[in-house]
Design goal:
The protein is built from 19 helices and 8 strands. By secondary structure, it is α+β, with helices and mostly antiparallel strands. The strands form 2 sheets. Strands 1-3-4-6-5 form a 5-stranded mixed barrel. A two-stranded antiparallel sheet has the order 7-8. β2 and β3 form a beta hairpin. α1 packs parallel to α3 and α9 crosses α11. The longest helix has 27 residues. The radius of gyration is 25 Å and the shape is globular. The chain starts with a helix and ends in a 9-residue tail after the last helix. The relative contact order is 0.09. The C terminus is likely disordered.
Length: about 500
């Protein structure tokens, strides 16, 4: 109550706690009006109460209820204007592809925003809203923004037999209906409708152009490197890993370096810190290196299509860099709490039902806070080159410790070799990204020159694959361990105790 910084932090945590609690329970129609009434009562109580202690407690309760209300608002009402209303019906649907299509081995996953629909004996209202998900063969391929006419039975997403809440997993994307076994036709009015919409269509056109550029780069990557090197480079440059063989992908998982081929806060933070150390080692001042990496993250987010998960990952990467620039842990903690609250304000489903969101924040917390404790307990080398490897090791250990309990709870695997493999691999990743990107650009200008650079990069890609395959195939590389939710919480309390006792929020410097 006597610290504005801690008061702000408390309100953010109360809002987050409210979202969390309501994410875990089944919601009823009566809850929304009840909590509106509770919010109004608390608001007037805060205005009238003069005693600081009670006023602070009431404000905390107010923010908690705000978090609950935000989640309740996000649950769509089952009305004729919502596509969810028609689950179980055979429908004719016109929808526009609203996310970048995800190609798998045998099919393509599409998410589309409904424009209009009709049943066998009725027509949906003109203000129909909602998204649907469906799978189609690899060809023909449909683009982002393209309108499609579909005929299918709409189905409600169901939880899987093993307890996985597939319905809540899709809800984080605003998807409440699955279009099962669709019969589909390409709309003939797509390009005309984009032209008629004029300025309103510019975001769709711009993103489509960006995705076309990404597709052109993907084709160039396939030309410059053979498999599996091309898929590894695609993962490094823009997070695509669908082309990696299943066996090699399993080796990446067992070796504990899947993050280098996935777009996540963990991935971007580790690579951003490695790039930061690389630029400083190359002679740039810390402020210039900071801005160089931030600009690189922004360009990367735009290049990959700026989806919600990529934007979130970029924000996490920038926060880790910002922590080093700001220098005060208390200020960084407030930035992290505010970022989490704003993200939940935008999409409250990600807190409980999005493992990527959870891992991104935990990895960021580890890189900001745990790295300080680990670095201070180890003797820092004076040689700049050795210090680069030292910082990489510290950052890797910090992220691994911060995410380990959740990884054991969610995926049930502990990689014994992860710290060593990360140390052996991460130093070369900035070089592979830099010269890999250069090879692609040179390939567009003069392909033989691009091939020469690509051959040199291929040696580094081969080095990474060789290490991953060797370590991944060792029986002792990973242990299958799954823990309960209460054990997960206990482990995080144990990890946090030294920092709570040490006064994490008392303005300590990084």
């Amino acid at each position: 109550m006597h610290s504005k910084s801690k008061t702000f932090l408390a309100f953010c945590f109360c809002f987050i706690a409210g979202v969390s609690l309501f994410s875990l329970q089944e919601n009823s129609d009566w809850q929304f009006p009840l909590f509106i009434a509770a919010f109004a009562a608390l608001f007037f109580a805060v205005m009238l109460w003069q005693k600081k202690v009670w006023r602070f407690a009431l404000l905390c309760a107010l923010f908690f209820i705000l978090g609950g209300l935000r989640f309740l608002i996000s649950v769509p009402k089952i009305t004729p204007s919502s596509i969810k209303y028609y689950n179980g019906e055979k429908m004719e649907v016109t929808a526009a592809v609203s996310e970048e299509p995800e190609a798998g081995i045998s099919n393509v996953k599409y998410v589309a925003k409904v424009k209009s629909c009709a049943g066998q004996s009725f027509v949906c209202p003109k203000n129909i809203s909602g998204k649907i998900i469906f799978w189609l063969p690899l060809y023909p391929r449909y683009e982002y923004g393209e309108e499609l006419n579909l005929s299918c039975v709409l189905q409600e997403p169901k939880a899987s037999p093993d307890g996985f809440r597939y319905d809540q997993y899709l809800a984080r994307y605003g998807i409440w209906s699955v279009c099962g076994n669709p019969v589909i036709a390409r709309s003939e009015t797509t390009k005309q409708s984009l032209a008629k919409n004029g300025i309103a269509a510019l975001p769709t056109v711009a993103r489509n152009d960006m995705l076309r550029l990404k597709s052109a780069v993907a084709n160039q990557v396939d030309k410059l490197w053979p498999e599996p090197k091309s898929s590894l480079m695609a993962g490094l440059l823009y997070g695509a890993r669908s082309g990696l063989p299943t066996e090699l992908l399993e080796d990446f998982n067992r070796s504990g370096i899947t993050h280098i081929i996935a777009i996540s806060g963990y991935n971007i933070s580790i690579i951003a810190l490695a790039l930061m150390s690389f630029f400083i080692l190359a002679g740039l001042s810390r402020p210039r290196a900071f801005w160089a990496v931030v600009v690189g993250i922004i360009l990367f987010v735009l290049f990959t299509g700026a989806s919600a998960s990529v934007v979130r990952a970029g924000i996490m990467g920038v926060i880790v860099l910002l922590a080093q620039q700001m220098g005060r842990l208390s200020r960084v903690g407030n930035v992290l709490a505010l970022t989490a609250a704003l993200m939940l304000l935008f999409n409250p489903y990600v807190l409980v039902w999005d493992a990527g969101f959870q891992l991104s924040f935990l990895a960021t917390l580890g890189l900001v806070y745990l790295s300080l404790g680990i670095a201070s307990s180890l003797p820092a080398p004076r040689n700049d080159s050795i210090n680069f490897f030292f910082q990489t090791l510290v950052q890797t250990l910090s992220a691994i410790i911060a995410t380990l309990p959740l990884m054991l709870f969610q995926f049930g695997r502990l990689s014994i070799v992860a710290p060593l493999v990360n140390l052996l691999v991460l130093w070369i990743i900035p070089w592979l990204m830099l010269f890999g990107f250069a090879a692609v650009m040179l390939g567009f200008i003069f392909f033989p020159l691009g091939q020469i650079v690509a051959w040199i990069v291929g040696v580094g890609l081969g080095y990474v694959i060789m290490l991953v395959e060797w370590f991944g195939k060792q029986g002792w590389a990973a242990l299958e361990i799954r823990i309960s939710w209460w054990m997960t919480i206990l482990l995080y309390i144990i990890i946090a105790l030294p920092f709570i006792r040490g006064g994490l929020g008392r303005g300590k410097h990084l």
